[in-house]
Amino acid sequence: MEQTDTKKNEDWVWLGHKQHFIGKSSCRFSLATYLPATRRVVSTIGDYFPVYEREAVGPGTDDYYETFVFICDGTFSEYCGCPTRVDTLEIDGRRYATAQEATAGHMELCRKHSEV
Ligand SMILES: [Zn+2]
Fold this sequence. Notes:
The protein has about 120 residues and is α+β, with helices and mostly antiparallel strands.
């Protein structure tokens, strides 16, 4: 994976909690990054096992992973420090078939949204 300007990435905050998707507690894969400069959160979930079988998280049969980007209001949960989203509607997003694609896509959207 290519590495861009690391100075720019220093203020990114990696979040432990999954940031979107109603079935997130059944997702085995997640990445979440808060971008302070633009007050956006990039959230990736996937490998969704609601019961025993893996299911897609998007409308396509191979949509096993997705990254959504949300605007935040600059406040944070007192409980865990997660950012507060302005609303539940994403401003950008991608879906993928594999975890490798999801990881690369997450980083791409972090870079894309870290500057206005
Ligand atoms: Zn949290």
